[in-house]
Amino acid sequence: MTVDYATLTAGQEVSNTTFVLDANTITRYIESVSGDSTLRYPLGPDVVPPMAIAALGLRAIINDLGIPEGTLHSSQDLAFLGPTFVGDKLTCRASVKLNSVRRESRFVSISLCINDAGDREVMTGTTTLIMPATGTLQDA
Amino acid sequence: MPNWISGMNLEPIIKTITQNQINKYADASGDFNPLHINQPFARKSQFGRTIAHGMLIAASLSEMMGVNFGIDWHISGRMKLRFKAPVFPGDTATTFGEVKEVIDLNSKSEIVCVIGVKRQTGENAITGEARVMVNTIQ
Questions:
Q1: How big is the CA angle at B114 (ends B23 and A81), to the nearest 5 degrees?
Q2: Is there a contact between B60 and B38 (Cβ–Cβ < 8 Å)?
Q3: Cβ atoms A131, A73 nearer than 8 A
Q4: With a threshold of 0.90, does the pTM exceed it?
Q5: pLDDT in tens, A98-125
Q6: Which of A16, A132, B24, B110 supports an S-S bond with A32, CB 3.0-4.6 Å?
Q7: For residues B131 and B61, is the Cβ–Cβ distance under 8 A?
Q8: Distance in angstroms (rounded) separating the CA atoms of residues A95 and A115
């Protein structure tokens, strides 16, 4: 279910999700990004790749907000603030930073902040998405 | 760990992207946007075929930074990325990174790098900047 993006306002919280970095999820993530080579990651098997945290944070947003078909990822800012490990429990909070329409496209920037179980920030970032102002790319 | 100076190149990451890999990433990330996994839908899009998730390609940039900077990347890494062009199944995506500036901050240095990913055509798929704090070598 996709929300009506026209109604989103700056500062509005769109996701507040807790998830666990379980071994199966991280293994699937690593397999998917490794492709035809082994992920070169010298820090040990229990250290979670930082981009996995970002991907799982975005998954929380996708689940809670819904993303219209054909949406494009325009830009991504990320700050990694501490290592995370398999088994860690994280909370992702996401809020609207910007929601504007230019020409026929809607630009939505979403800030996300991911904390560990001790409420320590482990990642922050901003995701900017471009989607048709109405309908999907099929309609555009 | 090297003594980082302006102009140094980072060791790149090279990957050939497949539709199977894109499908796996969709499953792992929960991003089932049909632009990535649905051929009939993607054929009607501006790209004419499926494209890889931007974050799948961006993962190679973080991998490059992790290979070059180790744990420092985990605790102080920052990057700003712009997705400039799609990467298609069958493309070879190669990361690049060059130290642009070394900022001395007492016992640490902030390393500023120009980073990105190129397709095999030479086209930039992602451009951006990364920053990481490292201990100053005595």
A1: 70
A2: no
A3: no
A4: yes
A5: 999 998 899 999 999 999 999 999 999 9
A6: B24
A7: no
A8: 15
**Complex-level ipTM:** 0.91
What number of residues does chain B have?
A: 138
One-letter amino acid at A134 equals T
Tens digits of residue pLDDT in B33-91: 999 999 999 999 999 999 999 999 999 999 999 999 998 999 999 999 999 999 999 99
Interface size A-B, in CB pairs within 8 Å, comes to 141
Q: Do B75 and A83 touch (CB under 8 A)?
A: yes
DSSP state of B35: H
Partner-chain contact B55 A73, CB within 8 Å: yes
Residue B100 lies in a domain: yes
Domain total of chain B:
1
Q: Are A41 and B70 inside 8 Å of each other by CB?
A: no
To the nearest whole Å, the CA of B5 is away from the closest chain A CA by 23
- The answer to whether B21 contacts A80, with C-beta atoms less than 8 Å apart, is no
Q: What CATH code is carried by the domain that includes residue B60? A: 3.10.129.10
Give the model confidence (pLDDT) of B120-138 as tens digits. Answer: 999 999 999 999 999 886 5
Q: Is B63 a domain residue?
A: yes
